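TA notes. Do not distribute before section.
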Amino acid sequence: MRLSRFFLPTLKETPAEAQIVSHRLMLRAGMIRQSSAGIYSWLPLGFRVLKKIEQIVREEQDRIGQEMLMPTIQPADLWRESGRYDAYGPEMLRITDRHERDMLYGPTNEEQITQIFRDSVRSYRDLPKMLYHIQWKFRDEVRPRFGVMRGREFLMKDAYSFDLDYNEARHSYNQQFIAYLRTFQRMALKAIPMQAESGPIGGDMSHEFVILAETGESEIGCHKDYLGMDWTAAGIDYASDLQPIIDGFTAKYAATDDKRDAKAEKALAKDLVTGRAIEVGHIFYFGKKYSKAMNAIVTGPDGNDVTVEMGSYGIGVSRLVGAVIEASHDDAGIIWPEPVAPFKVGIINLKPGDKACDKACEDTYDNLVQSGIEVLYDDREARAGAKFADMDLIGLPWQVVVGPRGIEKGLVEIKGRKSGERQEISILSAVNRLTS
């Protein structure tokens, strides 16, 4: 993609309403624009990151479940069945359609998926089931803030499990536990699993997954080993007994807010890590909370009716864009991990119109694109300083700088955004480096 044709409305100044790093940088980097309080348009650069994160989430969910799509607007009667319509609170956006039917913009989908299941599944032979979708949600926050970190409209992956008994339900829970750790590590995030309160979702077993960040909404304490754990090191057989793996992942101390234990933390001494953290995922086992209320039953092996066991599993996909930035930035701008970067490489032409520079840029661009590398080529007529500043701001992992002095020697400069290291090498070597 040539930057002269790409819609990238960057800002030099930080808008006054942006209170945290990710909000400031997403606005300045031309990733989002506010439509109304807590609701944003995703511009091309931001949308590319959003889709990268969504795809990683999808790939890990596909290992254990099946994707579907449920509507954003749900009938209120479903929520009346579960008892949550009046209990959920003012965060739910309630709507009346032209036929005077009560509707709502879904903040979550437990009721909708339970209806689909109960109308479709009759026998224990059809269990277990793990279904998920990636869909926009709406929660009418009283004070939306921090950009996409706490907006009213957000993109979420929510999965739902249906099992015959507790042991099978626990296995489904464990599958999602591991899938979450793999998902976040693929995004270069160090996510720590912590026991958590279930909140309005309900249930008696719950973990949230957090990453350390100064702007986090909760205070956490954990064993330092969690920061170095490799969740993807061992091959995972999702059909096997996963409990020993889960036990290994959760053996050390990790607690958030009101679950913290001052005595346990004191005993850890130098092994204790404390700080603020951002929640990036939450999983819940809630047994028969919804299936009993909504009559989701199957015929068991003995011919008797069995009320199924359920769980739900959420990841804030749009929230993760902000979370990655909170975890990976510097004073100059964003530093994207390669798996979620909008482009892997940015090419900077320091002298557009110079035949040698133009040819070197075109050759580099063509070779990288033909190798399947996503490239943003800054071919604008602009000052070198502005080009460098914009490229650092948007945070692409690699920069290739092409200027007259280097080209005279047959060299281009390659820069790693994270390390800041620069090296002059030939165009062929640069292409080989970036495609290896």
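Switch to the second chain here.
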Amino acid sequence: MARSKSKHIRLIMRRRKQWKQRTKRRKEAAKTAGPAKPAPKKAPVKKAPAPPPAPPPPAAAPPTSETPQA
């Protein structure tokens, strides 16, 4: 049998209230316990410098209209 709407809402509100109380107590406990020990930081990974770009290939000589006569 289904739960009546009013019972359902009361159940939801009760759970919400319990959750809020639990989180409130947790926050208070964390505050009195002091800050947690921070995790050790990892050293930053150094990247190798990028190689300089290759020089462009030399331009081909333009073709001449004269043909060499040997």
